Amino acid sequence: MSDRKEFRDLATPERAHEVADGLDIDPGAETVPLDGARGRVLDERIDATLDVPGFDRASMDGYAVRAEDTFDADEASPVTLSLAGAVHAGERPAASVESGTAVEVSTGAVMPDGADAVVIVERTTTTDDGVEIRTAVTPGQNVMLSGADIAAGTRALGPGTRLTPREIGLLSALGVDEVPVRAKPTVGILSTGDELVRPGEPLQSQAGEIYDVNSYTIATAVAEAGGAPELYPHVGDDYEAMKRLLRRAATECDLVLSSGSTSASAVDVIYSVVQSQGTLLLHGTAIKPGKPMLIGELGDAAYVGLPGYPVSALTIFRTFVAPQIRDAAGLPEPATATVTGEMAVRERCEEGRRRLLAAGLVENGDGDLLVYPVDKGSGATTSLVDADGTVTVPADTAFLDAGESVTVELFSPDVRPPSVLCAGDTDPVASQLLDGLDEPRFLPVETREALRRLREGIPDVVVAAGPTGAPSDAVELGGWTREWGLVVPAGNPDGIEGVPSLVDDDRSMVNLATGFGLRTSFDAHLDALADERDIARSELTDDISGYDLTTTGGESPARAVSDGDADAGLGLRATATALGLGFVSLGRQRVRVLTTADRRDKPAVDRLAGAIDEVDLAEFPGFD
After folding, report:
1. Residue 152 buriedness (CB in 10 A; 0-12 / 13-18 / 19+)
2. Tens digits of per-residue pLDDT, 291-336?
3. What is the C-alpha separation between 40 and 333, in angstroms, rounded?
4. What angle, rounded to 10 degrees, do the helices at 322-329 and 214-224 form?
5. For 8-27, what is the mean pLDDT?
6. Where are the alpha helices (DSSP H) in 225-367?
7. Given a cut of 90, is residue 573 above it in pLDDT?
8. Which one, of 117, 305, 317, 331, lies nearest residue 217 by Cα?
9. Could you give the count of Cα atoms lying within 13 Å of 307 in the half-sphere of its Cβ?
10. What is the DSSP letter of 397?
11. Rounded distance between C-alpha atoms, residue 599 and residue 188, angstroms
């Protein structure tokens, strides 16, 4: 009998929000130094305990006077007052103002006794007899009275106030050096899975190991939401070890987050740990991505189990967890930034579950905003940066049609469409050209897929490599040729001379997926060799060990050779040179940078075209 747990009754998104809202995450309050209070939230009201300013002070450079001595003064008939002294900011006045006298003052200086006004220096002239006053002033003019800024006993700031530089300035003026604030909720973060390795540690990809993405992604998101993240060691799919670590985190944190081990697989056991050690309030919700979500309680700590895939984990965190952390920290909901655009392509949806569709933005040639799906699957970490926001698709929606108006909730208010959206084959020259533009975006896809997207009107520019056709309305901005072939170990110890060595000498290789420019040229090369031998291409490829072992990364075959996992890999001379490997040339191929007529006049596309004309290919081995 299988011990696999099934998702039988998925909670609605509304029910999941209700359960998440009911979690108790109260970190209490703490006192922090004023210089560490920026961005924190006051927990108590602060009243002024002194007058600010604590003295009558001059608000302009000039002369402190008795106002009645100036009533007859004007430009034609100035009044001359004798000088009784001077006082500057930070000094105790040594002189006082009597009738017929004045004291020189600077801005911020304490008003001397007897003075009730200041004549600005621009309306005076010093003489041997004193100072000529050429304007009349009234009592209190150009003077800030004691307590005029804020008086003792006044309510200065209330609880719930977020402390920005303005509030910090006021607290400084009041002499406050420690501030009572809402404590940041401590959030424990655990990533589960035997396959995880922390960045910086050795990785054994052949053993199925991957770097731990979620711990760092979620920790950053926790801090952004106002929490204090606490990373714990990752734990494998071991019941007892998971139980010990969860119990420890629950005693040390206000909220515990785990990622992974929440699905219905028999090895995903965290839900049973939560059931045995606390209370499981929810398991599974009708939302995509993020169906296998857990919500519960572990002792005095709240608990949320996030899915293991990075996109799913971050989406569920932003939707259900971040609001709870902000609320516990006393922070307001951020201003929701949304934009409206048209779907660039038709997107099919899975009915029955609400979908949060990761979406990217691009402007067409007329400046209209287009929205395109960014969906490489929940396991693709690049979706985190290729997308600009999400489109909420109701559960009863079968598809979003091309041209349909949709609302995109941006990941942050400052998100903008890229200056140029480029898609296509990975190429070192193209990468350098894009580096010279402000805020470009590159989508690494095979040439065939990039050209399909160009026909659909998504990218501004495509990098097309190899003998591949282009849409009839494509406009070529420029291009170059590059030398391609087989990357081999340094010194070519196996004496690989080309494809015949792979076929006849049983040498292994790593290939690129169909549709990439290098693969297209390689298959054309194989066709020519098959014709020469008067056999079908399949007879050649059947004898090439690893021909069907493909990757989608431009340097991946070469790196497999560098790691000793293959005798040869499809690649560029430039890649072999950069990695210190050998190279067997098989030919040259053309790389074209293409756009469409309606995008040609976009400023960034025009700048890219100019950069192509000026690029120095001498620094790229094998390029011309």
Report:
1. middle
2. 888 899 998 999 998 888 888 888 889 889 999 999 999 988 876 6
3. 14
4. 40
5. 87
6. 239-252, 270-277, 310-316, 322-329
7. yes
8. 317
9. 23
10. -
11. 48
List the one residue out of 85, 84, 83, 91 whose CA is nearest residue 109.
91
Checking if the pLDDT of 125 tops 80, the result is: yes
The span from the CA of 328 to the CA of 277, in Å, is 24
Q: Report whether pLDDT(107) > 60.
A: yes
Please give the backbone phi and psi of residue 421, each rounded to the nearest 5 degrees, phi first.
-105, 115
CA 174 to chain centre: 37
* Euclidean distance between CA atoms 71 and 613, whole angstroms: 76
Q: What are 41's two structure tokens?
A: 């939230």
**Res 4: pLDDT:** 39
Per-residue pLDDT for 414 more than 70? yes
**How many of the other CB atoms lie within 10 Å of CB of 545?**
16
Question: So what's the pLDDT on residue 383?
Answer: 63
For the chain, how big is the Rg over CA atoms in Å?
A: 35
Cβ burial of 393 (10 Å; 0-12, 13-18, 19+) is: buried
- Residue whose tokens read 């391609």: 484
Residue 356 burial (CB count, 10 A): 22
Tokens at 621, concatenated: 């081995």
Task: Give the pLDDT confidence score for residue 458 in this predicted structure.
Answer: 93
pLDDT digits (tens, 9 = 90+) for 512-559: 999 999 999 999 999 999 999 999 999 899 999 999 988 887 889 999
Residue 264 pLDDT more than 70? no
Question: Do the Cβ atoms of 464 and 447 come closer than 8 Å?
Answer: yes
Residue 72 corresponds to which amino acid?
Answer: D
Count how many Cα atoms sit within 13 Å of the Cα of residue 434 in the half-sphere of its side chain: 24
Other CB atoms within 10 Å distance of the CB of residue 473: 11
What's the one-letter identity of residue 374?
Answer: V
Which pair of structure tokens corresponds to residue 57?
């002070």
CA-closest candidate to residue 55, choices 124, 1, 113, 127:
113
DSSP secondary-structure letter at 313?
H
